[in-house]
Specification:
The complex is a heterotrimer. By secondary structure, chain A is of the alpha/beta class. Chain A has two domains: 133 residues, P-loop containing nucleotide triphosphate hydrolases (Rossmann fold, 3-Layer(aba) Sandwich); 60 residues. Chain A contains six helices and nine strands, in the order E-E-E-H-E-E-H-E-H-H-H-E-H-E-E. In chain A, the strands form two sheets. In chain A, strands 6-7-8-3-9 form a five-stranded parallel sheet, with helices on both faces. Chain A has a four-stranded antiparallel sheet with strand order 2-1-4-5, covered by helices on one side. In chain A, strand 1 and strand 2 form a beta hairpin. Chain B has a single domain, classed as Four Helix Bundle (Hemerythrin (Met), subunit A) (Up-down Bundle). Helix content of chain B is 78%, strand content 0%. Chain B contains eight helices and no strands. In chain B, helix 2 runs antiparallel to helix 7 and helix 3 packs antiparallel against helix 4. Chain B is globular and about 65 Å long. Chain B starts with a helix and ends in a 7-residue tail after the last helix. Chain C is mainly α. In chain C, helix 3 runs antiparallel to helix 8 and helix 6 crosses helix 9. Chain C has one domain. Helices cover 82% and strands 0% of the residues of chain C. The chains are: A alpha/beta, B mainly alpha, C mainly alpha. Chains B and C meet through helix 5 and helix 6 of B and helix 7, helix 8 and helix 9 of C.
Chain lengths: 204, 250, 232
């Protein structure tokens, strides 16, 4: 078991409000890290801070035993980000969206087809995203996770707009990813049922 | 050396230090301006071409110079804030912008008033310096508008710092292009060829005015930065101690 | 364990993906391409109507009118450059993709030019003819417009990145970008005027080319920094 990510002495402000101070976390391969807390406790901000979208006031995040800021591009190749927004273009169809993604990530067409198969999206490839239901759009966002071949999955409220089947699909995907030696950070107020060791960070 | 900078960048220390400097700057500035104004307006000889109208340069030149100076201070402190993440220097940039805009406006006003007897119009597009000043004013407006549009102070600091730097790269280019533009324009050169070197009787008051304006600008800037620091640090303990009556700061 | 299969994607594939996506999006929403063009044509029509039909005056003011109209048309479309990416969460994905962000910013600006700048350059002769511009002048105008619109797309992308997510829209963006764009306007319009007067135009064309190179090198970095800040 090796360490994927860790952070120490993290402190974050939003405007004048201090969300947390002296926060620590660690994530090893095959582990799930759940960020818990009530609304407005800074779950999303914490996740965005780890991803480098926000700046922590103090503290450092380490990835593969170096500081994230020292090799931010390498870090970005090793993470994939899923927020409550789909992050795809509503005017383009599924295939065009995912081809764009694989252009950014340098993945091949065979993998793309395998991912579509896995998420049972193959029938929907020709439709523009705006004509899909919210739940189907979420699956497109999930496809990005599989497409990216990154070790660290960062998910902000992954169950948004998903039905029961979708919910268990997410849990299944996470379990597989952990078994595969990946790591996963999830900010959610819903319970997760996943095979693999789980760590928790609670925010007030 | 570094400890000195670190201490300077600490808001409470700066707040106290600035308070000590402001009166000195104010007194030196007022003295220089008083000498410059009296000597410039009453004792300096009239210009052989422009008569008494030239005397407006005692306000115009220092303001024009300060409008550039303020932008430079703004851009440099914005860069320092962006690179070394020193919050105080963002406060300096924020405080310098409205002052710079005011001096730019003053330079424009006096330039225009001077233009009235010289060119017979309040505004002469052919003069590259006035046009440059006008664009400078717009740059300040853009900077302040961007700041005003962003609610979060930290974000406003960083975003406006990027804008200030882009502006700083562009200013020389803008000046150059305006210069080129008006050089193609006939009639722009009527008073621009400075003629003989300026006479010492005119020069010393001008230097005194430039000196005095700079010190007054310094005092105003320090004062504004103090206010800015006080506002930004309003949650900090030292501000509470300063503002609230004894024993009331929980 | 699966040791990081860190496959860094090639720069060109990421760059081309971004350009291709934005052009494809414009293809699916042709209004985004056509509206600035109509605006350009419309603004150029305003001047003769306001100034009067005297062809001498029109020939004299033609270069300036075309350039002002082009500047405004480019500004009009800049506001949306990062807006939809910001709203649907694509901006997070772009920032967190393994591509260097300045490269992505450059690709976005280039796509913006392909969508708005290039059509504008191609349409400009039509407007120029109505202003009695001779053929020689029209070719100079197209060259200056090409360099100028590329610079505008790049310069404008900085402003668009700074204002993305702010609900002040085009007015704020114009206030930020217009003063910075003055050198482009000055050299662009004056060079066309000089061409109309059969004067030497090389100085202006060289300047615009140099300015274009400057923005090509520096603007993507400023845009990238601004995007990171705005997306916080």
């Amino acid at each position: 078991m090796t360490e994927l990510l860790s952070g120490s002495d993290l402190c974050l402000f939003r405007g004048d409000r201090c969300l947390f101070t002296a926060l620590e976390f660690a994530l090893n391969t095959g582990e799930l890290l759940v960020i818990e807390g009530p609304n407005g406790s800074g779950k999303t901000s914490f996740l965005r801070g780890i991803a480098g979208l926000l700046e922590f006031e103090t503290g450092t995040v380490r990835w593969s035993s170096k500081r994230v800021t020292d090799d931010y591009q390498g870090f970005r190749a090793d993470i994939v980000w899923l927020s409550h927004k789909v992050g795809c273009k509503a005017d383009l169809n599924l295939l065009e969206n995912l081809r764009f993604e694989s252009g950014l990530r340098a993945t091949d067409e065979a993998r793309l087809q395998a991912v579509l198969e896995r998420l049972s999206l193959s029938r929907l490839t020709e439709l523009p995203l705006r004509s899909l239901s919210a739940g189907q759009q979420r699956r497109v966002a999930l496809a990005r996770l599989l497409l990216a071949r990154a070790r660290i999955w960062m998910m902000d409220e992954p169950f948004t707009n998903l039905d029961k089947a979708g919910h268990s699909l997410v849990e299944e995907l996470i379990s597989e990813h952990l078994a595969d030696g990946g790591g996963c950070i999830v900010a959610s107020h819903q319970a997760l049922n996943v095979d693999g060791s789980t760590r928790r960070v609670s925010l007030q | 050396m570094w400890t000195f900078f670190h201490k300077l960048a600490s808001p409470p220390h700066f707040y106290d230090l600035a308070a000590k400097f402001i009166p000195w700057f104010g007194v030196i500035g007022a003295a220089c301006v008083a000498y410059g104004a009296i000597a410039g307006l009453f004792y300096a000889p009239a210009d052989y071409q422009q008569g008494d109208a030239f005397r407006i340069i005692y306000v115009h030149v220092p303001s024009a110079y300060l409008s550039m100076m303020a932008y430079m201070i703004m851009a440099v402190s914005a860069a320092i804030g962006l690179i070394w993440r020193i919050k105080l220097s963002h406060a300096v940039a924020a405080a310098a912008a409205p002052l710079g805009a005011w001096f730019t406006f003053l330079a424009l006003m006096t330039g225009s008033i001077w233009g009235r007897p010289m060119w017979g119009t309040w505004w002469e597009w052919g003069d590259p310096r006035l046009t440059s000043e006008l664009l400078m004013l717009f740059l300040y407006f853009g900077y302040m508008a961007l700041r005003a549009a962003i609610d979060d102070t930290t974000k406003a600091d960083k975003a406006s710092a990027v804008l200030a730097l882009v502006g700083a790269v562009n200013i020389p280019i803008i000046h150059f292009s305006v210069e080129w533009w008006s050089s193609l324009h006939q009639g722009a050169t009527l008073v621009r060829e400075g003629g003989p070197a300026i006479e010492t009787g005119m020069l010393y008051p001008l230097l005194a005015m430039i000196f005095g304006f700079t010190f007054i600008f310094g005092a105003l800037l320090l004062g504004r930065v103090r206010t800015e620091v006080l506002f930004r640090e309003r949650r900090a303990n030292w501000v509470r101690k300063l503002v609230l009556p004894e024993g009331d700061h929980a | 364990m699966n040791q990081p299969t860190l496959n860094m994607p090639s720069l060109s594939s990421g760059f081309l993906s971004v350009v291709r996506r934005d052009v494809l999006l414009a293809w699916k929403r042709p209004g985004d391409v056509l509206n600035p063009l109509f605006f350009f044509a419309m603004v150029s029509t305003l001047f003769p109507l306001a100034v009067g039909p005297s062809s001498e005056e029109l020939a004299f003011s033609g270069p300036g009118v075309v350039w002002v109209a082009a500047l405004l048309a480019a500004l009009l479309s800049l506001n949306s450059l990062f807006m939809s990416d910001f709203e649907d969460g694509s901006l997070d994905q772009l920032i967190l993709s393994p591509q260097p962000l300045p490269m992505t910013a450059l690709a976005k600006a280039l796509a913006h030019w392909l969508i708005t700048g290039l059509p504008l350059v191609l349409v400009s002769p039509l407007v120029a003819i109505t202003f009695q511009m001779p053929a020689q002048t029209i070719s100079v105008m197209m060259v200056t417009l090409t360099f100028g619109t590329v610079s505008l797309s790049l310069l404008g992308s900085i402003g668009a990145a700074l204002t993305v997510g702010l609900h002040r829209g085009t007015a704020l963006l114009s206030l930020l970008i217009l003063p910075l764009a003055m050198p482009i306007l000055i050299f662009g319009a004056r060079t066309v005027s000089l061409a109309a007067a059969d004067d030497a135009v090389s100085a202006g064309v060289y300047f615009l080319a140099a300015y274009c190179m400057l923005t090509l090198t520096l603007a993507p970095f400023a845009t990238a920094a601004a995007l990171r800040i705005s997306n916080e």
